[in-house]
Design a protein that fits this description.
Layout lengths: L2 H25 L13 E3 L1 H4 L11 E4 L2 E4 L4 H4 L14 H6 L23 H17 L2 E5 L2 H13 L5
Parallel strand pairs: 1-4
Antiparallel strand pairs: 2-3, 3-4
Bound molecules: protoporphyrin IX containing FE.
Length: 164
């Protein structure tokens, strides 16, 4: 075999090995999952509790009537996070009281929303500081409405003439 042929074959083999290696390296880079940004809407506590990183991959929580998409902070609010008690729930009272005890997480099945007007001034200040933090870090995705209001809205929609 002529030396030019050997050089050609060696170059070709090297080229194939390098391109295949590069392609395999690119394939192994998995893109970061993009958290979906849902459209603004109302959530009842019963709907909100689905967004806890278990039932749905998105994680939401509510503060003072606003629902935040905290999926980017899943390591905190997802099922294995230190603040998982807040994921899918109204975190208002817990944040104000600096506690994630069950007693400060309102029952998702209650008819009415938790009313935080009984908090003392210090707790209200703590709460407002946390709210400012969430406003800055996480997108708001909707309003928290009571289960009662949500079911009334559903009944109204089902009885609307356009539906029939
Ligand atoms: C032993 C007590 C605690 C320690 C050592 C602690 C530690 C931390 C640390 C290190 C961070 C920042 C993590 C980061 O940015 O990577 C953080 C964030 C946070 N902590 Fe705590 N914490 C404690 C108690 C609490 C309590 C009692 C609450 C409220 C009930 C709380 C709520 C939060 C929240 C909401 C964040 C923000 C997470 C985010 O970026 O979305 N922490 N904590």
């Amino acid at each position: 075999m002529a030396s030019t042929e050997i050089v050609f074959i060696v170059t070709l083999v090297l080229y194939l090995v390098i391109t295949r290696w590069k392609r395999r390296k690119e394939d192994s880079i998995i893109p970061e999952p993009e958290p979906k940004q849902p459209e603004w809407r109302d959530y009842s506590p019963l709907e909100l509790r689905e967004f806890n990183g278990v039932h749905r991959s998105l994680v939401f929580l509510a503060i003072k009537g606003t629902v935040y998409n905290v999926t980017l902070g899943s390591k905190f609010y997802g099922p294995k996070g230190p603040y998982s008690a807040f994921g899918g729930h109204d975190a208002t009272r817990g944040l104000a009281k600096s506690s994630f005890d069950d007693e400060f997480i309102p029952d998702s099945e209650a008819d009415d929303l938790d009313d935080w007007s009984d908090l003392n001034d210090e707790e209200k200040q703590t709460l407002d500081d946390w709210k400012a933090f969430f406003d800055q870090k996480y997108p708001a995705v909707g309003r928290l409405i009571s289960n009662k209001e949500a079911s009334q809205a559903r009944t109204k929609m089902n009885n609307s003439p356009e539906k029939n």
